[in-house]
Structure formats: C-alpha cells, structure tokens
Amino acid sequence: MFKQLKTDYFSWIVLIGIVLLLLEISFFDGGLLFSLAFTIGLTYFGRKSYSRKRGKIMFWAGLFTTAITVLHMMIFKFFLLAILVYVILTFFQSKKNPGIIKPELVEPEIQAGNPENEPMLKKDHIFENRLFGRQKTPEYIYEWNDINIQGGIGDTVVDLSNTILPKGEAVISIRSFIGKIQILVPYDIEVSIHHSVFAGKADIFRHQEKMAFNQIISYQTAGYEKAGQKVKIITSQITGDLEVSRI
C-alpha cells in the first residue's frame, strides 16, 4: 500500500510540475523560457571554448545566471516543497510501521566461476542500506552476520539477545544521517564503543553525554581485551542519539 502511495505521489508531483511550468511560461513570465535557453546556451558555448579566458567568463556567467533563473522559478520551489513533504511523511510512516528484517536461515551457496578463482561463500545480511525508514532486528532467533550499513533518515535497532554471537569479535558498524541508534547487548558480552557525532546525545551503559557537539566518544568494558566473545561497535551520525544498554 505504501509503495503504491509513493508511486501515486510522484505521479501527481510530475503532473502538477508540468502544469505549473506551463502556467509560469504562459501567464506569469513569458520571457522565462527564452532567458533560461539563453543562459544554458551561454554555459554550453563557454564550456566549448573553456581554454580561453573569454570561454571561462561565458561558462561561469552562464552557470551562475542559469542557477539564479532556476531558483526563482515557481516549479523549483514547488519541487523543493514536495521533497520536504515526502521526507516528513516517510519519516512518520517509518515511526508507525518499522521495517522488520527477516533473514532466512539457509546454507550459503558456493559461487561457481573460473576454476582458478578461490571458492567464495555468499552470505545474507541482517540489514540493508536505506535512505529513509526504520530498521530493526527480528523478534525471533536469527543467524548472526557482522553489520556494516549506511542510513539516511530513520532509527536503527539492533537486539543481540535473539542471536548467537560467534567466538571472537563481532562487528557492528552503522553510519547514519539523522535518527536514533539503539543497540541492546546481553550481560555476558564484553563491548567496545567508538562513536562519532556532530550533534546529539549518547547513553552508553548509563554513562551519558547529554549534548555532544562534534565529538568522538569511546568506551570499553573492563574485560574486553581478554574476552572470548565480544562486540565492537563503530557508529557515526550527523545528528541523533546513541543508546547502548544491557538486556
């Protein structure tokens, strides 16, 4: 249903954008199309003779005037507003209906290829890179694979109580733009945390950084170095909160 909503939304945006462009050219600013064509042409011919001083002047003057013309167009402001509304709607939708990742427990397949190449095993991932939306580990038992993802806007929840961590060091690497990162760790697992944030808060096993600004925060449990099972957490955010707690 949400995918259909997105398709309909973009269809309406394109249709309204075309209508606004025609209205703007026909009734509000008849010379806009000519002005835009002239500045684009100036940029094009300036680029063709960019090796000369005159070409450089034409190119940058055309590029600048084209940008100014586009910024003043009604259709540009409309698309900017439409993108903002879409981001807000997607964010609230992800809060109400978080996406649950459901990896299947299957044996990895050996990739066939050149006999001279080393046999490789293809493995599934718990998470995926997403520009928008909330991601969370499933509520049932799942097979562990190291996490290395990038996100845009949305929350990420990693619950390690529903999986069996391998011997040695498991790695969780999450980079996001805006949102909260929550990691739930069993009591018998040693942890190392390396967190980089431009603006946000951090709560790591009750050790709180109420307002971190352009900081790097690092913690490590006492028995991490000698532990047989341990988790290395590497996170980075532009803005958002980090919570690492026991479960």
From TrEMBL:
Coiled-coil features, chain-numbered ranges: none
Residue ranges constituting the Cell wall-active antibiotics response LiaF-like C-terminal domain according to the UniProt record: 132-244
NCBIfam families according to UniProt: LiaF_C_term
A GO cellular-component term linked to this record: membrane
Protein name from the UniProt record: Cell wall-active antibiotics response protein
InterPro entries noted in UniProt: Cell_wall_LiaF, LiaF-like_C, LiaF_C
Swiss-Prot/TrEMBL keywords: Membrane, Transmembrane, Transmembrane helix
Transmembrane segments: 12-45, 57-89
One Pfam family it belongs to: LiaF-like_C
